[in-house]
Specification:
The structure is a single chain. By secondary structure, the protein is of the alpha+beta class. The chain has a single domain, classed as Thrombin, subunit H. 13% of the residues lie in helices and 29% in strands. It is built from six helices and 16 strands. The strands form three sheets. Strands 1, 2, 3, 4, 7, 8, 9 and 10 form an eight-stranded mixed β-sheet that branches. Strands 11-12-13-16-15-14 form a six-stranded antiparallel barrel. A two-stranded antiparallel sheet has the order 5-6.
Length: 318
């Protein structure tokens, strides 16, 4: 006879973990495309000044929402008129898009600029009123790479970055979307940024590209074994092409994104920390490779979808 065996109570199934899918790389790239616009102004009957700009969600010091336009300072300096044309785009009811440019006031009646220029770098910022869809598309200020971000994310020579622009005033289509291009980091060292305020990108620059964002998303390639950033970031602003003896050599010059943050601080009447003096390195007790700080809560404000909610919990590039 066998003793009566009482089977143990059934063990309940563990609760299913919520599966949160990462955003497709192309979706993150499209987010930056939507935040990039064309600026232009006729100079005469046969010529117009063209540049690229992008939008940043940069709340005012009191917390009120604000959309800031960012471009290369020489783009606006080269527009003598009081108004420029900004290339808004409108989604149509049939799912298409159409180009819907509007005038944007950039100077006072006496010619004084309405933008704020960084005192040392070719970067200009200006608060603007944008259509609601562009306000929502504006890039969070936490995505601007800070002075140690490239070190933290182990970005170096050979890594791929993307840029958006309007070469020779051309767009990707009749709706006015920017043209996406890629290039590899072509200089070293990249930091400290006070010693190396710009870096080189291996791609050909044309008139109209100036002012465009240079950025990383998961669609860009990095060297194997290096840190993968937790979310996209803007590494800098394309400000110039390299020329030797008056000839282009197919290299772009990029100003670090930290200078955009400093220009926004100047626009707010705040002296940016370290703007005119070299920054102090973290104390010796800090990790050798500083980790980015956390961004403002909110991520991509008014964003939709799971990947945008995940960004709210991400870290800043600062």
């Amino acid at each position: 006879m066998f003793d009566l065996q009482v089977p143990p109570a059934a063990v309940p199934e563990p609760p299913a973990a919520e599966v949160v899918q990462a955003a497709p790389a192309w979706d993150l790239t499209v987010g930056l495309i939507k935040a990039t616009v064309q600026l232009d102004q006729p100079i005469n009957d046969a010529e117009r000044k063209v540049g690229t700009a992008f939008l940043i969600d940069a709340p005012m010091p009191d917390g009120r929402p604000r959309t800031v336009l960012v471009t290369a300072a020489h783009v606006l300096d080269g527009m003598p008129g009081s108004e420029a044309r900004i290339g808004w785009r409108v989604e149509t009811t049939d799912g298409g898009w159409r180009f819907a440019p509007r005038q944007l006031r950039i100077r006072e009646d006496d010619g004084d600029p309405l933008w704020t220029k960084h005192p040392q770098r070719d970067i200009a910022v200006m608060a603007i009123t944008a259509p609601p869809e562009f306000t929502e598309a504006a890039i969070p200020i936490g995505w601007l790479a800070g002075p140690y971000a490239l070190d933290s994310w182990q970005v170096g020579p050979g890594d791929e970055l993307m840029t958006l622009g309007y070469p020779h005033g051309y767009s990707a289509n009749t709706a006015g979307f920017p043209i996406l291009r890629t290039g590899r980091v072509a200089s070293w060292p990249l930091t400290p940024i006070r010693a190396f305020p710009t870096f080189l990108l291996d791609f050909s620059v044309f008139p109209g590209n100036s002012g465009g964002p240079v950025f990383w998303t998961p669609a860009a390639r990095k060297l194997p074994g290096t840190a993968q950033p937790e979310h996209p970031f803007i590494a800098g602003v394309l400000v110039q092409e390299m020329r030797v003896g008056g000839e282009t050599v197919g290299i772009g010059i990029v100003a670090h994104a930290e200078y955009v943050r400093e220009a926004i601080a100047l626009m707010d009447g705040v002296e940016p920390q370290g703007a005119l003096t070299p920054p102090t390195r973290p104390p010796s007790s800090a990790p050798a490779t500083p980790r980015p700080d956390r961004p403002r809560r909110g991520g991509w404000r008014r964003g939709r979808g799971r990947w945008r909610r995940r960004l709210r919990r991400g870290r800043s590039c600062r």
